[in-house]
Every structure is written in C-alpha cells, then in structure tokens.
Specification:
The structure is a single chain. It contains 10 helices and 9 strands. The chain is α/β, with parallel strands linked by helices and 307 residues long. The strands form 2 sheets. It has a 5-stranded parallel β-sheet, covered by helices on one side. Strands 2-1-3-4 form a 4-stranded parallel β-sheet, sandwiched between helices. α5 crosses α10. The relative contact order is 0.16. The model has no long low-confidence stretch (mean pLDDT 91).
Length: 307
C-alpha cells in the first residue's frame, strides 16, 4: 500500500511496488482516457527551489492528465523563503492546501526534512547530488517498455559518473535485479566514486568494467545511458581536450552498436549526443521524456490512494 507514503529515494519502493508502478504506467500509455478523471479534486504542489524544465512540467502535466490541479513556484524568489521562512514552515503551510507535494531543492537531505513536517506525501524531485527517484522511475519504465524487463542487460553509463545523481540512482536500482552487467565509461576525473562501487556494485557481487573510450565498448551494450562531460570538472584543460570527443555520441560510433541497443539520456543535453543521432530508431531519450510523465502519473495515483 503506497497511499500516504513519502518517496524520497529509489529505495523507498520495494521491487514489487516498482513493478506495480511500471505496469500501471504501461496501462496509462495504452489507454490514457481511462485515467483522465481519477484525481479530480486533488491538488499537487510543485515547489522548485532550483531551475527545472522537464521534471516540473512533467509533474504538472501528470496531475493535469489525471484530472487534478496544480499550484506552486518555479523560482524560490517567488516564495517566502526570501523573507527568511524556513523550509519546515513552508512545508507545514503548503501541505495544508494540497494532497501531494513534489519538491526540488539544491540541498541534500531537503526532501527528508520536508517529509518530517508535511501532512501529505512528499515526492523528491531532486535534492542536490543526492537522489532523484522519479527520474529513476522514468528510466525503469523506459527500460521495461523498450527492453522487456530489468534483468540480463549490459548497461553502459557514459560521461559524468562522479557527480551524476541520475547515474547513481539508476545503477542502484538496476543492481537489485539479477544478471545485469555494468560498463562504466568516463575519464578518470569523473569516474564512479570508489565508495559507490564498494557499497553498491562490489557488495552485490555485480560484474562491472571501466573504459575511458566509448567506441571501445559500445558494441557490447544493450543500453547506453549518456550524460554530459563538463569541462569545468577537469583540472587540466589538455586532458579535457584529449578526451572530450570520446564522449560525443555520433553516427560513426552508432555504426558499431547493436541493432537493438537503446540510447537513453536524462536531459538536458548539450553536445554529448549529436543531433544526427536523433533520427536513429535506437535513440530513446525523447520517448523517455514521455514515459516520465506516465511514470509520475502512476506514482501520484498510488501515493494519493486513488488507485
């Protein structure tokens, strides 16, 4: 039973609950009209203390497609935090008006704090570099819809593996399923942190390999999860210039990929996926955006108790 539950991290959900949400999202994709009024009279608050396009609009679109309504802010300067109001007081106030809160905050742990003061479910829409559970649900709905399930995949994560919260969350989620193999593609400067590989991959006894070059391993992958390599993360510009083209996915690299590999990206992209790849049937990142709305529709339905 998910009614009234706070969703703060991917681990907030049992595997059976993830399957339940994915199944519901798939039903909503097939027959959206069947669910268009189930949240009539329900209100979602979107409290975004840092910029967002896809996540905020996806939450709002999800609630509107369910027949509910939304309120909130996309700029903290439009809230009473500019007057010195604490997050706890903001949450106490807003939870008096609504049925569910989706919140993004740049401070790690902010979602946990909000859940301590809210009288309604809090869904973490990103707290700093910590967790982004609905992006993980988006990724899982995409993988299940396009690859048929969560087990037995070789998954490549490419780009910024050190700071990328979407990478950390999806690796954690996919490590809960059997027979997955991970390929970690990054410069040394942006490699997956040692503590993470120890606590997640090694502890679970999962197979993983590392590579500095995407082209060396792309042919092995069933799923490629791209992220941006940021110039500002390098101490040495020469190292960045030497490596940056290795992390730009283009038609030439795609020629060596499997015919049924899918390419995912949490977006926004800058130049790490060339626009020429967009027309490739394996490019799945815009499908991923649409699946994200349905994933959030399913989650909202569950935590508000309408389904």
């Amino acid at each position: 039973m998910m009614k009234g539950r706070h969703i703060l991290e991917p681990g907030s959900l049992e595997l059976s609950e993830i399957d339940e949400i994915c199944s519901l999202a798939e039903q909503m994709i097939v027959d959206p009209k069947a669910y268009q009024d189930i949240c009539h009279g329900k209100v979602l608050a979107t409290l975004f203390f840092e910029p967002s396009t896809r996540t905020r609009l996806s939450f709002e679109a999800a609630m509107l497609h369910l027949g509910g309504s939304t309120l909130g802010f996309a700029d903290p300067s439009a809230s009473s935090t500019t007057k010195g109001e604490t997050l706890a007081d903001t949450i106490r106030t807003v939870s008096s008006y609504v049925d569910v809160i989706a919140m993004r905050n740049p401070k790690e742990g902010a979602a946990k704090l909000a859940s301590m003061y809210s009288s309604v479910p809090v869904i973490n829409a990103g707290d700093g570099g910590h967790h982004h559970p609905t992006q993980t649900l988006t990724d899982l709905v995409t993988i299940r819809a396009l690859k048929g399930g969560f087990s037995g995949h070789t998954i490549g994560f490419c780009g910024d593996l050190k700071f990328g919260r979407t990478v950390h969350s999806l690796i954690t989620a996919m490590s809960r399923y059997p027979n997955n193999r991970f390929v970690l593609i990054s410069p040394n400067e942006l490699a997956l942190p040692d503590y993470f590989t120890s606590q997640v991959l090694k502890r679970a006894g999962l197979e993983f390999v590392t590579s500095e070059r995407l082209e060396d391993v792309i042919g092995d992958l069933d799923i490629l999860y791209m992220t941006r390599v940021q110039k500002e993360r390098f101490f040495n510009e020469a190292d960045y210039l030497r490596l940056k083209d290795s992390y730009i996915l283009d038609k030439a690299k795609m020629k060596n990929a499997k015919p049924n590999m899918i390419v995912m990206h949490p977006l926004p992209r800058v130049n790490e996926i060339a626009t020429e790849v967009d027309d490739d049937p394996r490019a799945s990142y815009f499908k991923q955006v649409k699946y994200g709305m349905y994933a959030r529709m399913a989650l909202i339905s569950k935590v508000t108790g309408v389904l």
